[in-house]
Design brief:
Elements lengths: L13 H13 L6 H8 L4 H23 L3 H6 L4 H117 L1
């Protein structure tokens, strides 16, 4: 169904709701809250209900004014009063039926909103649990990283100590090699002196 709203216009006015209700009534249909919403193609049920109530009140005022006639004319149509009262009662019953339908429509909408709110609350709770879980994992990773850094520092100290010990051993080996070389030279000199005395 084509919307009667103008493109780019925000909100639903009383005139738009009244126009939609008149269009529905012209088709010999009941202008219920849902029917007006479908005719408009947009709008909240709360706003439509407010304007639709004003439209219904205006129609009742027009009907009441139509029944108020000059005294001389009223005397001529006294016999029609009962018929008008009956018609008015029938109209009121139809309006009450529309009100009940609109009430049911609003109840369905409120239930849908309540269900949506519950679903969003559940998602929010799940998100908080996930955040708490991730925070716990993050803290655990920080502790593991801290422990790993301590181990790396300890290993670096051990490596430095080992390198120092190796360097000391190498220095000792060089000194021992030099001592051995000197001892050999001393021995050779002593041997040479002994031969020379002979």
């Amino acid at each position: 169904m084509t919307s009667i709203l103008h493109p780019g216009r925000l909100g639903i006015s009383y005139e738009q709701v009244a126009s939609a209700a008149d269009a529905i009534l012209s088709r010999a249909e009941r202008p219920t809250l849902k029917a007006v919403r479908e005719q408009l193609g947009t709008g909240s049920f709360g706003t439509i209900q407010k304007h639709l109530g004003q439209w219904q009140a205006a129609r009742r005022e027009v009907a009441t004014a139509a029944m108020t006639m000059p005294t001389d004319i009223q005397r001529l149509i006294v016999q029609e009063i009962e018929k008008q009262v009956t018609a008015a009662r029938r109209t009121l019953e139809e309006e009450m039926s529309i009100v009940r339908l609109d009430r049911d429509t609003l109840a369905d909408e409120n239930q849908r909103i309540s269900d949506l709110s519950d679903a969003l609350q559940k998602e929010s709770d799940e998100s908080r649990l996930q955040l708490a879980h991730h925070a716990g994992l993050s803290e655990q990773l920080r502790e593991e990283l801290k422990a790993a850094r301590i181990m790396i520092e300890a290993e670096q100290k051990l490596r430095i100590n080992a390198e120092q010990e190796v360097a000391i051993l190498r220095a000792k080996m060089e000194v021992m090699h030099e001592l051995k070389t000197l001892q050999q030279k001393v021995s050779e000199l002593e041997t040479a002196k002994g031969e020379h005395k002979k």
